[in-house]
Structures are given as C-alpha cells and as structure tokens.
Amino acid sequence: MxxxxxxxxxxxxxVINAFRRKSxxxxxxxVFCSYTSxxxxxxxxxxxxxxxxxxxxxxxxxxxxxxxxxxxxSGQLFSYTDAVTEVTAASxxxxxxxxxxxxxxSESVPTDGYLGGVIFYPASKRNSWAAFQEFKGDGCLHLNxxxxxxxxxxxxxxxxxxxxxxxxxxxxxxxxxNLRMIVSAQFSDKLRVLxxxxxxxxxxxESGAKRANIVLDADLPRWHWExxxxxxxxxxxxxxxxxxxxxxxxxxxxxxxxxxxxxxxxMGSCTFIVDASVVTSGFPEGEYKFNxxxxxxxxxxxxxxxxxxxxxxxxxxPDSFSGIGQ
Length: 326
What we know:
nine-stranded mixed β-sheet; 49% strand; globular; mainly beta; Jelly Rolls; disordered N terminus
C-alpha cells in the first residue's frame, strides 16, 4: 500500500500538455508540476494474473505445452498482406522458449493494413478486460487492472519502424456505451495509450470537461524505436474512492522487472473520471487483437521483423511486473 498526502513539488508525470478541440482529445505528456492531493492508492495487495500468453507453440488450446495461451483462454495467429506470423524460438532476444514473431519479406511492398499478430479469446469475463471494471452506483465506472508485455524490433524494415503509426493493442469497439483502448507506437518516438468512448462525452477531466478521448504519450529515451532493444511496457488503471481513475504507463529497455512503486519506471500518468451514465458497458468480455506487426497508414514495411512475448493481464495493479529471462 502506498499513501500520498499533502502538498509537494515533484517529478510527477501528469497534467495537460495539449488540448485539441477539433478531435475533442485530452492530451497528456510528462511534465514537472506542483500538486496538492489527499489520496489513498492501494496496489499489489490482491493483484493476480488472469490471462497469460507465453507463446510456447502455435496451437490454439487453453494451456497445453504447445499452446499460445498458458492461462485464461486461447489465441489464434493471423497475418495480412505478405506478412508471416509464427511462434518460434529461433533467436535468444526474448529469453528462453517460444515467442511471437511477425515478419515481412524484403521483396514485399505492403503499404497499408494490419501486418500480423494474435487474436486473444478470454475463457470468461474474469479472464478478460471486463474484469477490470465495477459499477458501484456512484455514477463512476471504477477501473482496476493492468497489462504488461515485451516487445522487440528485430528489423525496422525499409521505412523504419512506425514511420507513421503501429497499433500494438486494440481492445473494444467504437460503439455507444463501450470503452475502447488502443496502444500504439506513435510516430517514431513514443508509446501512446488512447482511451476513447463513441458517445463523445463519457470521459471527464480533472477540470470537469467532458471528452471523447484521453490520450497519454510516453516518450522513448532516445527518441526512436531501437533495433534489438527488449522493451518491457506495463499499463495500469486504478480508481480511488472518489471515482478518479489514474492511467499510468511504465517501461524499461532491458526486459527486467518493472516497479509500480515510486518514479523509477513511470513514463506517463493522467487522471480522469469515467461517467457510468454514458459508458454503460465498458470494456468487452470477448476477443481482442495484439497486433505486433502493426498497421501503417503509409510507408513501406518491407523487411520488417517484430517480436513479442509474455502478454499478461492482471485484475489489479501489482507492486511489480516480473522481467523476462535473458
């Protein structure tokens, strides 16, 4: 448990950097700021892994020795254009055992669309993103949960990785009442989390403004996606007793453990309310995509090769996310 009380000046990743009226986004980036707060945040006390994909093999079963998913459901590989999606153990970059790989032949010229990845099928609501949420009758949708994964750009391809954008994770659909999360490698220098609702006013900022989208950006340390770097990212959602949701991005660049305590691995943070009268269903119980090959609206992905491993969902925010063996 961690308690933050009082008034202080700190390296706190929050607050608004830009607000785009046209798209009705609320856009955050990391800044230095002063804040006054009285909040109680509990982490790690009850967090359990509810879904895990270890990519031991290509099979779509529910936890066998050669299955994509080891706990909480199943998975199915997919490829578009000329991409090749497979589970392999050909290189040691992501530790021992199998991992997910999406590659595009160097002679191919794909210019648009998802390249490849895996579709996850949760076994039940308690293994899905819907397990994050609770309607408590206070007018707010309470969200508590986390996801982490490991990501490696083995070859950026002819146009470079994420020349425009690469959509890594896509949860939920753009329908009224739903909550949708998109995680993308935005442009060449950041990881972006977009939380959105189709109704247009279900997300309420700390100033009381109603928005369609919350956008949180985390800058990469060297301002671009690097080849052969093992990125370990975690995204957490936690709700305080007043209904305020805090969205955090954590990351490191060697595949090691991530801590949610303190500022060491925190890359970005923002706070808002989810209006339960507008967002009436929230996150889905069903399938969603982990698009490690990405989707690019322009550019040439020929020669690109991207790998990922150990995708995990949690029903609360843990104190730490374990690293991957090197």
